[in-house]
Write a structure and sequence with these properties.
Distance between the termini: 46 Å
Largest sheet: 2 strands, parallel
Strand order of the largest sheet: 1-2
CATH architecture of one domain: 2-Layer Sandwich
CATH class of one domain: Alpha Beta
Shape: flat
Length: 101
Amino acid sequence: MSPHRTRDGRPVCHRSEICGVIPTDQLFDTDEPWIPEAKKTELMNFFQTADAFVFLIYGHTDSRASDACNMNLSQRRADMVPSVARGAGARVVDVKGFGKR
């Protein structure tokens, strides 16, 4: 028997947990989806030092624009983050934009 199998050989599944959150509203300029180079370094450091197996990237915006505009912007912002994560050797399994919701 191992910590990954029961006595009869069935695999043991452990519930996953979200273990880290970084507020990224500071990473983007107003109404922009691009991450400035200085902020990319900060974000890369987060991914390199976070003790996580995989990452879920969820983007949000404030309420200054229309819902449609915010949905588009939040998705575009969320789509920018995985390249930085992968550059740091992190594994990203999900990327979603939620607008101001």
